[in-house]
Specification:
Number of helices: 5
Helix content: 25-40%
Distance between the termini: 14 Å
Length: 145
């Protein structure tokens, strides 16, 4: 796992932009997770969504913390500059009609960051090999920074 590196400003929990951006937040108005996976994460341009189900519903603080972990202890994606990924120990969202335990986040030089759930095949297209994903350490989804 790598550190953010030579970014001018280090990220903090408060520099998470995903909450304001809202695109990848859970669909709190829909309690049927299977419907969310099939309806809200597929299409011509798939959208990653964090989970909201009877089993687990991520709140804004959970999402900030998960994405912060991604950019501070996650794996750097060599081909994407300030991009990182992390493998969690449970499903935390969906993308492209598939549940996933992987998160992708981008870190800006001003310390701001935002991320989303991402599938193994999407990470593979970014140059992250399947065997690297398989052998990555699973981080507890509720680990504190």
């Amino acid at each position: 796992m790598s550190q953010p590196g030579s970014h001018a400003v280090q990220p903090t929990l408060l520099s998470c932009r995903s909450i304001a951006y809202q695109k990848h937040l859970p669909v709190y108005s829909e309690d049927d997770w299977a419907l969310v996976v099939s309806k809200y994460t597929t299409g011509r341009k798939p959208v990653g969504r964090y989970i909201h189900s009877q089993d687990l519903s991520l709140n804004h603080g959970d999402i900030r913390r998960i994405e912060f972990l991604c950019v501070t202890i996650g794996n750097r994606i060599a081909q994407k500059g300030g991009a990182f990924w992390i493998k969690l120990n449970r499903v935390i969202g969906a993308n492209d009609g598939e549940e996933t335990n992987l998160v992708y986040a981008e870190l800006s030089t001003d310390g701001g960051f935002h991320g989303r759930p991402i599938t193994p095949s999407q990470l593979n297209r970014m140059g992250v090999r399947a065997q690297d994903q398989d052998h990555a350490q699973s981080i507890p989804w509720n680990q504190q920074p």
